[in-house]
Amino acid sequence: MSTSAVNQAAENSGVSAYSETKRKNQVNGKTIGKPELSEKAQKYYEKLKKKFGNMDFILVSADMKEQAEANASQYAQANRTVVLIDEDKIERMAEDESYRKKYEGIISGAAAQIEQMKNGLTNKQGVKTFGIKIDDGGNASFFAVIDKSLAAQRKRIEEKAEQKADEKKKSEKQAREEKLEEIRAGRVPGDEDLVTVTAGSVEELMKKINNEIYASLSDTVQTDAEKQVGQHFDFRG
Prior knowledge:
elongated, 50% helix, 8 strands, six-stranded mixed β-sheet, alpha/beta
């Protein structure tokens, strides 16, 4: 091979490497802001989402990192845990194997803690979704999106069901009428009262969720025993 051909091959190789690791394109899908990733980072990001297929990843642009949690509610889905991760972390995870293993481990551990918390949470009927956010120091924080109006509506339905537990089974016509009554008394579909609570640990998050939901149930009076339910849970592995 001639010298010029060798030089040309090296140049082409350099262009290819540059295009994969340096040039960035805007990412489609679930995003907050307008994050961009290199080709290499995009390929890794797709693998990451498949690896944690039971979670919803939301890519955050660098300028939206502080506001990300407040915007996460638009992606809230029942029984899905949201993971907020910024573009810079994905870029570095794609390049640095040790950094990648560290953060994938953090994601996995945080997800396990949320699942454990769900089992111990007494007032999850108003929670639309749970989420995880990891800061630049590798510390995981947790958040939950709560629909306070939904919690209150479900509480009313539960109370009415308890009151009628000893009554005879209603006719089909009566059941339909009662359901219509509940719809009229409850919220209009889409009329949500969403609030996002954030905590540094799942134990703290559990307390905040319970407090927020209880606060929305203005006609519910907590006893001292009720205040303690779900408040103490050992998350140490």
